[in-house]
């Protein structure tokens, strides 16, 4: 995966959160020969993860939680195709149609992951069908080419986040889909202030012109959620369990020494999580994801994931001041949970 690693290294300063994908790359490279199906499964995860990250930054209407769960979660092919379309909208040099032709290859990778994958879909032993190291090598090389080309053109787009929202449509007679969403958002803001005292301007426009950060925050954190129907929590796809096992063979240790989330989160630990979240003013669901990552990967959580746990969204300057202390508190809390028998 040398091409992807090089691209990530070249843009680590502006897209530091993409360093997360080195975890996938490491798993791919460590398993190509020893555990081919894990390498192939990790290739699928890398493609899907990068596609979602691109959509999160280039599509203001993209709701990852809704599209990834529920009764009909989207396939990796859907995420991949949508991400190519968004890059093509902003990059004339991007050969979206050519790259999209590899969608069939991704479909095959996804099918192999479902039939032979060792992690997300645990298999009984002995396995009846297993991919060869040569096939895993070929899938790895193709993934390296596809993902590196996609990231190269995505990183060339002049944005490290979603584009700044435009208050007025560029064409009032024929607004685009994104512009229609903004029009609805402005109406939503204005209706939230029925007694707004200024007659010469609207509340939404005043907010946009004088406090854009608040305008943008309410759009992503508040308004977009009103456009999506809530999924029945019972229908949400549950995280596949992992297990903690002591082994003596270092060649397979990375396979079985995994974090078993469904078993770990007992009623007692969930109760402690609630108390800790309330004390630190954090979101429980996001906090649990951070703890799962830390206990699974044994690495310090990424700053963006720590920030996502905070109920009161701080400014960049404020977050820099409290980031280290809050991260340490969460890590110590995770360790205390992991050391207890519940």
Overview of the molecule:
The chain has helices at residues 2-10, 22-31, 36-58, 64-68, 76-90, 96-100, 103-116, 133-156, 177-191, 203-210, 212-227, 250-256, 261-264, 267-280, 284-297, 303-308, 316-338. It has 17 helices and no strands. With 342 residues, the protein is mainly α. Mean pLDDT is 79; it is low at 231-257. Helix 3 crosses helix 5 (76-90), helix 3 packs across helix 7 and helix 5 (76-90) runs antiparallel to helix 7 (103-116). 62% of the residues lie in helices and 0% in strands.
Strand content: under 5%
The poorly predicted ranges are 231-257
Return the structural class.
mainly alpha
Mean pLDDT: 79
Number of helices: 17
Order of helices and strands: HHHHHHHHHHHHHHHHH
Cα end-to-end separation: 41 Å
State the helicity in percent bands: 55-70%
Mind summarizing the main beta sheet? none
Query: C-alpha Rg, in Å?
Result: 22 Å
Shape: globular
